[in-house]
Amino acid sequence: MAAITHPLHSLTLTFKTPNPRFTPLPKLTISATSSSNRHISGRKLTAAVIGGGPAGSSAAEALASGGIETYLFERSPSGAKPCGGAIPLCMLEEFSIPPDLIDRKVTHMKIISPSNLTVDFGKTLKPHEYISMLRREVLDSYLRSRAESKGVTLVKALVTNLDVPFQPNQPYIVNYTVNNRMKYLPVDVVVGADGANSRVAKAIDAGDYACAIAFQERIKLPDDKMEYYENLAEMYVGNDVSPDFYAWVFPKCDHVAVGTGTVCSKQYIKQYQQGVRSRVHPKIAGGKVIKVEAHPIPEHPRPVRVRGRVALVGDAAGYVTKCSGEGIYFAAKSGRMCGEAIVKASEGGHRMINESDLKREYLKEWDSRYKTTFRFLDLLQHVFYGSNAAREALVELCGDEYVQRMTFESYLYKKLAKGNSWEDFKMVSNTIGSLIRCKLVGKQMESFDPNVLAKALCLVEMDMIGWFRWWHDDTHSSSPSVIQIYR
User: Fold this and answer.
1) Is the pLDDT of residue 446 over 70?
2) pLDDT tens digits, 176-213
3) pLDDT tens figures, 132-146
4) Which of 59, 128, 224, 484 has the most CB atoms in a 10 Å sphere around its CB?
């Protein structure tokens, strides 16, 4: 048996196999029992959070606020993940985001079809409602600083690998480099918030998942062109900009972010970027590219998100929604929920936790809140992003003000919007009508994946049946929407 002492704290943890890259330091030992929920004597539970984005910072803040000794690892604090930077209104209050971090308040949104049919998608926003646009480097820096103010130790270093213990009462060893020097840190719990290419996920054999690639250019526009995008965001759909997603133009403080994404044709991402630039060319003519960014984005949750005393959050866990590609809110939310779950299970850092604690307090709660949302948006992406005809139908539907109201209420406040029974019925009818007009019902049905098509038609049928059942109910309380039935 060998023992190490880490320079960041006085704990010394005994592990089975010494790492030959390091020189053993003077031996110190902490007592351990066979009980995985043992009381920790003389110290608090220690946690390492790997990754300093919204997921990692939110997890670290929750951990430190709850009495856990917390270390937050971020290799590039000045960097930023390529991201559209849109966050819902509820996140500002829920995560206490200061107003001065917001670059633009988007109150108008246009969605443009393959044939250039343009729909104003912001007609139903109320006077106090808007979509916040910000830069990730600004948001991430703020969240890390706030976590530090709660007692988190920020470690500016690259984590190279995680040594997983052989025994349940042994520590995890975080190996990292600082100024080309290898160092290590023994901890009780690890939160992996290190993105789609998570090294923490690899260390616990969490399984693979399909990744999309997002490509974005930040373009500084002349003042007259920037004025057009003062409070406007645009979404473009079509095979020329992406075969399975959408392209965007989002306004920032002094520039616009122009980008696109794809999962099935990643090798042609630059071609699709040229496609969106061609579509938007008159509006950005004379602009100067100031930054080019690309990054993988997970397409679905990982097969394993908790193993041992390690939990994955944010992109590392696969928490990016289909159809909209939203990830910032769900990253921060998953990080906070995971941190709070560890605090609760450890009784404020006084007891050791185990895998069943993390699954019960974190995973079960997360899945109960959001699993259906992710599945439903996955289905919508399959139905409406699969062909140009489907995209035309999508844009046509987006012109309906009731569809807009339901969409924005669900997005801005992250809760199921209360619908009107008659409008719900009309929405289902209009959906079928749009599909027929765009030739998706009839000759082109055979081009759909049979399983996806069956699910889509099943949802429509179930919604209509549910509506008629409601109609014959004397109480007329509320009509069951597609989302409610699917849940």
Assistant:
1) no
2) 999 899 999 999 999 999 999 999 999 999 998 889 99
3) 999 999 999 999 999
4) 59
How far apart (Å, rounded) are the C-alpha atoms in residues 59 and 52? 9
Question: Do the beta carbons of residue 480 and residue 463 sit within 8 Å?
Answer: yes
CA distances from 266 to 32, 210, 215, 330, 387 (A): 49, 11, 10, 24, 17
Rounded Cα distance between 319 and 53, Å, is 14
Distances from the Cα of 312 to the Cαs of 280, 347, 458, in angstroms?
38, 21, 33
Residue-wise pLDDT for 36-90, tens only, equals 578 998 999 999 999 999 999 999 999 999 999 999 999 988 777 767 789 999 9
For the full predicted model, state whether its pTM sits above 0.85: no
Both tokens assigned to 408: 């924005």
* Vertex 442: Cα angle to 440 and 444 (nearest 5): 55
What residues form DSSP beta bridges with 251?
256
CA-nearest of 127, 114, 179 to 389 is 114
Give mean pLDDT, residues 397-423: 80
- How far, in Å, CA of 77 to CA of 82, rounded? 14
Given a contact cutoff of 8 angstroms between Cβ atoms, the answer to whether 374 and 301 are in contact is yes
Largest Cα–Cα distance in the chain?
Answer: 78
Half-sphere exposure of 54 (CA within 13 A, CB side): 26
Tokens for 191? Answer: 């939160």
